Amino acid sequence: MIDAELVETAGTVDDGMTAHARVYLVLQTLNSMGPGLHPLRRIIDESGVTKSTVHRILRAGVEAKHLIYRAPGRYGIATDVANHRPDASVHLNLPHDSALDRETTVLQRQTAQVAMAFSAVLIDDTPGRLMLDHTYGRRSDFQAAFNHADVDTKVALRYAPLTADAAGLAILSHLDGAPQSHLMREIRSEGYVLTQSPLPDWKMLGVPLWRGSTVYGSLVVMGLRPQMERNRREYAAAALACAARLSARCELGSGAMRLAS
Q1: Is 77 helix (H, G, I), strand (E, B) or coil?
Q2: Which H helix or E strand runs over 168?
């Protein structure tokens, strides 16, 4: 049970912020606190986000196995995904997960593009997608493009609303209550979606990740526009195969959205 006795913190700074900006701020705050468990009150105070919003964000992280909770009211980055790989992080500060690492590495090698995995963050009024893993192999052009991007672009690559790009649309199209638009029907029919990425001149192709009949994330191939448009079906087939293996691992796991190592 999440502790509910903490009072709402006065003077919060999240007024006017978008939902995805608040999610990123809370996760960034928790990550900046370092390893271990941290009191809920400290997370609220240092993030400047309201108690109720912090609760929703942290609960979603716990359910996704990205965060851990221990009574009374302490949260931290999950120990099984807390090790970082500095040589592959591109300053995105992403957690480590062995199953995701294996499949994104396979996908990157098969396509010679950038491979990424995202988790759905279904909280607040604007559900989003959060990057969990990525690998770019020898694609130094991706690292250069990311390093030269502005802050908003970097944030959007890590976290953005489901409507922003292929990483989110692959999730949104399979959610209950999603708009029954032509685009949503087309994504469900094709099994993948190709859109512009947050990085200029780069496009991304996304496919859904499943646990049983529930979509919980997406797997993405990202590359420069000409290659992505020319080889979209080949990349889609490779991504769907990797997604099927990851989804099968989730079926073997004991917890919701758990990627078995």
Answers
A1: strand
A2: helix 166-172
Whether residue 202 contacts residue 222, with contact meaning beta carbons closer than 8 Å, is answered with yes
pLDDT > 60? residue 93: no
Q: Are 168 and 218 in contact (CB under 8 A)?
A: yes
204 vs 94: CA distance, rounded Å: 19
pTM of the model: 0.64
Domains of the chain: 19-80 (1.10.10.10), 86-252 (3.30.450.40)
128-135 β-sheet, strand order: 159-161, 128-135, 114-121, 214-224, 202-211, 193-196
For residues 210-238, average pLDDT? 93
First to last CA, the chain: 27
Strands (E), the chain: 38-39, 67-70, 74-77, 114-121, 128-135, 159-161, 193-196, 202-211, 214-224
Lowest average pLDDT, out of 173-177, 224-228, 236-240, goes to: 173-177
User: Residue 44 has which token pair?
Assistant: 């609220």
DSSP-derived secondary structure for 92-145: --PPP-HHHHHHHHHHHHHHSSEEEEEEEE--SSS-EEEEEEEE-TT-HHHHHH
Q: Rounded to an integer, what is the distance from CA 179 to the centroid of its chain?
A: 21
Strand order in the sheet with 67-70: 38-39, 74-77, 67-70
- pLDDT digit string, tens, across residues 42-75: 899 888 888 888 988 888 888 777 787 887 888 8
Nearest one of 200, 217, 199 to 208, comparing CA atoms = 217
| Burial zone of 180 (CB within 10 Å; 0-12 exposed, 13-18 middle, 19+ buried) | exposed
